[in-house]
Amino acid sequence: MQVPGPFEYERATSVEQAVGLLDRLGEDAMIVAGGHSLLPMMKLRIANPEYLIDINDLAAELGYLDVGPPGAAGTVRIGAMTRHRDVLESDALAAVLPIFRDAEKVIADPVVRNRGTVGGSLCQADPAEDLTTVCAVLGAVCLARGPAGEREIGIDDFLQGSYETALAHNEILLEVRIPVRARTASAYAKVERRVGDWAVTAAGAQVTLDGDGPEPTIAAARVGLTAVNPDPEALRALSDALAGKPATEATFAEAGAAAAAACDPVGDMRGSVDYKRHLAGELTIRTLRRSVERARNAPEPQGV
Questions:
Q1: Closest Cα to residue 16, out of 62, 51, 49, 52?
Q2: How many CB atoms lie within 10 A of CB 269?
Q3: Of the four, 20, 159, 207, 251, which is 20 to 30 A from 173 by CA?
Q4: Structural domain that includes position 17
Q5: Residue 102 in contact with residue 187, Cβ under 8 Å?
Q6: In-domain check, residue 267
Q7: Any bridge partners for residue 205, and if so which?
Q8: Residues 143, 217: one domain?
């Protein structure tokens, strides 16, 4: 039976205490929330913290989901200790950022969704994790706190590579902030071997439309890929290239081909390289199409 190495355990009762413990114990201390990613890594000795700081008592302080008044423009705020289940079941969130419900429906199983947290998913920075792609597509901003106070980190800077984030060893993630824009919608699609499994390939998209009529123009877009080792610069170029183009099947197909070329998947028991590239292209097309459909039918946020 695989067991973690020896470690000391601390239970934080406030954000300030958690930050203080991280600062005092140094780089050998790690935060545990839901634990569904960290504990398996500890059992495999991939992660070997000397100190484990449990922040589950911070759920009352950091377990919130603030969408704002119905139909209002602004910023969605999701606390780092918000459980996946709460995100999945929020109709208010699904109304303005439907990509979250798309993704949460295919994240693991009810047991994991009941305990796993939004902050834990982002801080794990697993390239096969769905919410990292979701937040990247939405252009989220992460709010962190350390001994020197709070700072905002754009998601592109926060995610620095596989299992690496911009958080210092004595910082804790407080919340994720996501802007709500007019005529904007999002979508996520995933192919998995069985329900609850890691993605073979997944894709997300957010689209802002400009103009009316049967073929509106794409004013802005962001595309993201999961589990296929995408090239961030290539995805950024793909997204930028969509601006100003008509929201048509030809545009979606062009973007799908670019997405397939923008990734470098590894062939394994889940599928070959060619299969995963094909999925990257096809799922990009589907999420762009669904985002456009949703944006065309979305109510205009007040105050925009």
A1: 62
A2: 6
A3: 207
A4: 8-55
A5: yes
A6: yes
A7: 187, 223
A8: no
Claim to verify: residue 161 and residue 236 sit in the same structural domain: no
> Encoding tokens for residue 241?
């290239």
Q: How far apart are CA 212 and CA 108, in angstroms?
A: 39
216 vs 106: CA distance, rounded Å = 30
**How does pLDDT run across 6-43, given as a tens digit for each residue?**
889 999 999 999 999 999 999 999 999 987 778 788 88
Q: Please give the C-alpha separations between residue 123 and each of 29, 78, 138, in angstroms, as whole numbers.
A: 14, 14, 17
Q: Domain holding 45: CATH number? A: 3.30.43.10
Amino acid at 17: Q
3 domain-assigned:
no
Structural domain includes residue 43: yes
Tokens 């590579």 belong to: 161
Single pTM value for the model: 0.92
Residue finishing a domain among 131, 146, 180? 180
